[in-house]
Amino acid sequence: MRYTWPMTSSSVPLLPSTERALLHRIAVAQSEGRTPSLVGAVARSGRLVWTASRGDVASPADTQYRVGSITKTFTAVLVMRLRDEGLLDLDAPLERYLPGTGVGDVTAAQLLSHSGGLAAETPSPWWERTPGETRPDLASVLGERPLAHPPGRRHHYSNTGYTLLGSLVSALRGTSWEESLHAEILEPLGMARTTSLPVAPYATGWAVHPWADVLLPEPAEDLGLMAPAGQLWSTATDLCRFATFLAEGDERVLSRESVREMRTPAAPPLAGDGDGGYGLGVQLARREGRTLVGHSGSLPGFVAGLWAGVDDDVAAVVLANATSGPQPGVLAADLVRIVAEAEPRLPEPWRPLPQVDPDLLALTGPWYWGTYAYGLKVLADGEVELQPLRGAGRGSRFRPRPDGTWTGLDGYYDGEVLRVVRRRDGSVSHLDLGSFVFTREPYEPGDAVPGGVDEGGWRGMP
């Protein structure tokens, strides 16, 4: 079964063979994972192109499931909005904005990337199965030993850290985390079926006996202060919208550049976790050469997974109502892979630039760092790309700055400054990139090459 939010002429439905492969994958997952119901959904080019379910689901596209820690990514977007508005310095001590927590030296950036050293969980009782009133304030959330590791040393997943971030949002906005979430993310993105408490139709959460095919209902508690770490209920349709946002950004919520910053690794993966790591509120993964961004989630009675393959322009969501069994992160990654391999993304049509600065055009072509050959290419919006012409090497894209220099956007030179150095007569002498000198000829004679060039010039072996 296929459901789409409003189609455009550029929306292309999936091939029947691709749909059959997707359906088979979720059917196997629901059967082997022994979950009462399971929903899978795929978005491509910003459109929901497929959704299906197995088990007892009245409306696969519109039935709410609890999404657990996918909530954290929403909280992270709220924090990034505060930063972009100049209300928050991500690298400032938390004490500046939220005094009296006892962990004031930790920064918002560290909390976003789970590198603040905070404990993973609250003190007993288990917060996911007890009412939020059990923890009425931050002191009861953090406990007597809030830190498990020194801040900034390592990645240690922390639910309590995202409670602090939710409280930070409330303190700086002067409103509740939930109100900020609705006004700043859910309403602009049209996510009307994403809520803090369930709204029918919604799935019931179940525990499945590990040794018998019988069920036990799980409690669905309002988590109170812990809500920013895992409270939300959502649907396949809404989460595909959010996955598209994580891939593309949306100026009504967060710019493309800020979303790209969220997707940049900020903490390495733990030993045994494989490639990937954690950005600012998003999990990162490498699967069969494919880069995925998103998050997984679980609360008693529910598991969920959301991945966006940015380069493939494909996103997938998996929702199930069992405490354990199916692996939603693995399954969502498989759905992305099935579509990306069966129907590879078509490249954008080549189009000439509308105009180009002649001085910038004159900088294109080969440059040499020592004897390494590089090529400089003009991109759209005044950006340039400097890449090795042969073999592997250090390459990056650069964005123009008002002072006539460029800032690296990725790779080895991410954040580094590229500038053109001119002679007294105005002609270009060389490019300076983080003190590395790029000349038009390898070891071009003159004072541009640090250490100088042998006066004898190039020669054969004596």
TrEMBL record:
Q: Name one Pfam family in it.
A: DUF7586
Please give the PANTHER family that the UniProt record associates with this protein. Answer: D-ALANYL-D-ALANINE CARBOXYPEPTIDASE (PTHR46825:SF7), D-ALANYL-D-ALANINE-CARBOXYPEPTIDASE/ENDOPEPTIDASE AMPH (PTHR46825)
Q: What keywords are assigned to this protein? A: Carboxypeptidase, Hydrolase, Protease
Molecular function (GO) terms for this protein are:
serine-type D-Ala-D-Ala carboxypeptidase activity
Q: What is this protein called?
A: D-alanyl-D-alanine carboxypeptidase
Q: Does the keyword Protease apply?
A: yes
InterPro entries for the chain? AmpC-like, Beta-lactam-related, Beta-lactam/transpept-like, DUF7586
* Residue ranges constituting the DUF7586 domain according to the UniProt record: 356-440
The chain positions of domain Beta-lactamase-related read 31-340
Q: What Gene3D superfamilies does the record point to? A: DD-peptidase/beta-lactamase superfamily
State its Enzyme Commission number(s).
3.4.16.4
Q: Which residues form the signal peptide?
A: none
Q: What class of enzyme is it?
A: hydrolase
